[in-house]
Structures are given as C-alpha cells and as structure tokens.
Specification:
13 helices; mainly alpha
C-alpha cells in the first residue's frame, strides 16, 4: 500500500509540471499587460516599464517560467496585483471556508443521495422509486444559482432563519451547502440505485434471502458495501468538482472563499492569483483521486495493490 501511494505521488510530479506550463502560458496569452494594470490607465510608458522590470515581465518568457517554478518550490506564489499582499496568506484564509463548504455539501449529498438510492433499489418500480428518480432528475437539471436564490428568498428574506450573505457563524454554511449539494445528491442517488440493482442480482444475495435474512439486513451488511465501489469513484470526482465548482455559489451568497476570490481575480486581471488557484484546484483533484484509489482497498478486499 505504501509503495503504491509513493508511486502515485511521484506520478503527480510530471502532471503538475504540465499543469504549470499550461497555466503559465494560458495566463500570459490573455490580452492585457499586468504592469499596465498595476500602474493604472493614466501612467506613462516609463512607469509601466519600471513595473515590468520589478515584476520580471521584461525577461524572456522561458526565464519567467523557471523563476515562477522556482518560487513555487519555495512556497512563494507571488503577490496579488490588486492588493500587493502575498497570495499564500490570502489563500490560507480563504481555503478553509471553501473546504468546509465542500465537506458539508458532500455530507448532505451523500446522506440524501445514498438514502434515496437505497429506497429506490429496495422499492424498485414502486411509487417511491419513481418519486426518488424524478427528484434526482430535477436535482440534476435545476441551475444551482437559481436554487440558491430561491432558498435565499425563502429561508433568509421571508423566514429570517439564515443570513443572506457572508460567513459570520455556522448558519452561513447551511444554504450554500444545500445549494451546492443538491446536484451531487441527485447523481449519487442514481449511481447508488443502479449499483444496488446489479448487486442484488448476485448469488450471495439470493443465498442470504434463502437463509431468512431480512431485506434491510442484506442491504446494509452485504449489498451496500459491494455497491459502493463505483459510487465512491463518482463521489470522489464530485468532491473535486465541488472544490473547484463553488465559484458560482460563493458569488451568489457572498461567501468569502476561493471561488469568490477567483471571480475577483478574473475581473481585476490579477494573473498571479488566477495561476495560484488553478494550480491549487489541480493538486486537489490529484490528491482526491489518490484517496479514492486507496479507499477501494477498504471497500473491496479483492482489490490488491502491488507491494
């Protein structure tokens, strides 16, 4: 297991190198001069050139890239063009709100999605099955920003239970977490139902029924664990998408996380911040995929890793 994890971590290095090249080139191909943005529209050319020299933009692009990578290795993401503050410090402040928003969203999605999936599989072709799958289709189809506005109108404006924007207490997580988790819950429900229906056809399930075990006992002790392997795969990917896809929801709710920070960076053409966030999201995806592969071994004993 440890050899497998170490091997996967080493495999991340060339992927991250490619990501840094793509991000660096993409950001530098965006129209607009960062030095001009820092100097302001009224600054003369001499001032712009001094800022270019200060930022290292007057060097060849290959040299700029190696300087950038060298700084990354030392943990230096540079400074924001807008605030001139270290990006790493701002990232530390904004990462945890986004992380906990994603965690609570996944908990909501997992509980609701698994519950609907189990109910639909156990009551296949019944009213509860049709109702659960209809709710899943609605959850996948509804735009998240529209759902967020509706929840805000009902529970914040009319009932006053939760704040409309900001993060002053735990209540600030509730509506964004539900909004972000509804679509994922719908996907988990459909995956769980499909996986359980396949597992319930296996011989060992029929053997359990022949021994007189209840359907609930068979479901919880045998079927669910074996059906969770494809569900975990999809859930891990969705967790990564939520970390990177909270941009819209954080903007709707005025949430002080990485998503709203990225929107501000794009609006202000704050290139160093854009680069740092894309690299962070890429690293998160790689780590989540590694975690999913490791969890496989605990869910399915037949899966073995080369030692």
């Amino acid at each position: 297991m440890f050899k497998f994890i170490a091997k996967r971590i080493l495999q991340m290095i060339p992927i991250l190198i490619v990501v840094t090249i793509v991000v660096f080139m993409f950001v530098h191909l965006i129209p607009g001069n960062p030095a001009r943005i820092v100097a302001g529209p009224e600054a003369d050319q001499a001032t712009v050139e001094r800022i270019e020299a200060k930022l290292g933009l007057d060097k060849p692009i290959v040299e700029q890239y190696f300087v950038y990578v060298g700084n990354l290795v030392k943990g230096d993401f540079g400074n924001s063009l807008k605030t001139n503050e270290p990006i790493l410090e701002e990232m530390k402040t904004r990462f945890m709100p986004t992380f906990w928003l994603t965690v609570w969203s996944m908990i909501f999605a997992f509980v609701v999605g698994i519950g609907i999936g189990i109910l639909s599989a156990m009551r296949r072709n019944s009213f509860w099955d049709y109702f659960g799958m209809f709710a899943a289709v609605v959850g996948i189809s509804i735009p998240s920003f529209w759902l967020g506005l509706i929840l805000m109108q009902w529970f914040s404006v009319q009932l006053g239970w939760f704040p409309t924007t900001g993060l002053d207490s735990w209540k600030g997580y509730v509506l964004p977490s539900i909004t972000l988790g509804v679509g994922v819950a719908a996907i988990i429900a459909r995956f769980t139902r499909s996986a359980l229906i396949d597992v319930l056809k296996e011989d060992y399930i029929r053997t359990g029924r022949a021994k007189g075990f209840s359907e609930w006992k068979i479901m919880m002790r045998q079927a669910l664990k074996n059906a969770m392997v494809p569900v975990v795969t999809m859930t891990g990917l969705q967790f990564g998408f939520l970390l990177g896809g909270s941009v819209v929801i954080e903007t709707v709710f005025g949430f002080p996380g990485l998503g709203s920070w990225l929107i501000d960076a794009v609006t202000n053409r704050d290139y160093p911040v854009i680069q740092a966030e894309i690299l962070l999201f890429s690293l998160e995806f790689l780590l989540i995929n590694l975690a999913v592969d490791v969890i496989y071994g605990f869910l399915n004993p037949q899966i073995r890793y080369d030692d």
